[in-house]
Amino acid sequence: MQIYLDHSATTPPRPEVIAAMQAVLSQEWGNPSSLHHWGSRAATWVERARLQVAELIQAERSESIVFTSGGSEADNLALMGVARRYTEPQHLIISSVEHSAVSEPAKLLAQWGWQVTRLAVDRTGRVDPDELKAALQPNTALVSIIYGQSEVGTLQPIQALGEICREAGVLFHTDAVQVAGRIPLDVRLLPVDLISLSSHKLYGPQGAGALYVRPGVELVPLIQGGSQEGGLRSGTQAVPAIAGFGVAAALAQQDLSEPADELHRLIQLRDRLFEKLQVMPELQPTGNRLHRLPHHVSFCVESVSGRTLVRHMDLAGIAVSSGSACNSGKLNPSPVLKAMGYNDRQATGALRLTLGRSTTVEDIDWTAQVLQQVLSRLLPVAAVCS
Prior knowledge:
Blueprint: E1 3-4, H1 15-27, H2 37-56, E2 65-68, H3 71-83, E3 91-95, H4 100-111, E4 115-119, H5 129-135, E5 140-144, H6 158-168, E6 171-175, E7 194-198, E8 209-213, H7 239-257, H8 262-277, E9 284-285, E10 296-300, H9 306-315, E11 318-319, H10 335-339, H11 344-348, E12 350-354, H12 361-385
Parallel strand pairs: 1-11, 3-4, 3-5, 5-6, 6-7
Antiparallel strand pairs: 2-8, 7-8, 9-10, 10-12
């Protein structure tokens, strides 16, 4: 029995996505910047996808969507694109639980002389809006707070945080890579100026992402050389990947609008898995249970490393992870869990199970049974070794 529970790392492309990409690769392979009909046909795919992604987040203007190579590039374009507007270092605010695609550019800006404030979070990984308000300065150029934390599943109070920034006249960016396609997003209501998205988190292909740029927000491009993507991302667009992204976005929007939508199904499965595993006191749930990604289950185990658990679950045919896919290969304790107040042993024993469209009740029940069996074998060994 093979069970894939690592949908926060990547999702399998849907059949309709693959069909669209095949059509582009075989028939619509022109350069979308070319003026002849081969180019025009390719450009039509790009602009259709732009409209589809815009509709996913209720953006009124499709030109607000800038295609990138993925969520990480979108995050970098947001932070560095704002920073490059200034000739002198300014002030940046992020949270202490950001994805590395935000925390690393912030570190670079600090080396360039920028003042970087990292907001503390509570034990569940949430930022206090009052602390953001207190951290704002006259020279604050940008605030970047992740919407849905990929390692522990916590959702931030984005509405409240954005309203604080808007009242202060400060640009607000959020990494919504884990949220888009799973929870409805409406930029007409959200006080957010920049939003990062990723195709392969919502059943599209890897290698495509987008940054939503609210009209009127100015960025300096990271890549020079052409006028593609409104001058913000030079280079010939990856038409097959972008076309697949567009189809995936349209299908995700359709799923979210259906009466018995995927959102509620995932929440029920998520809560069932938490309940099945609560009988094991060694598994400490992480993240916020109320304000949480609908597909996300996470724990830490103080006596066993997350990597060990991942390997043993894999041997049983179940794919899980020990945290963010970008950091799961590292031996160091999770900086996210450390920021949430966990000690080194706990932060090394992170375990993440993320559900998807193919996940069934039977998958949940079998996974819970297998994980309990794995822990029953590993914990006595860990106790002896310690």
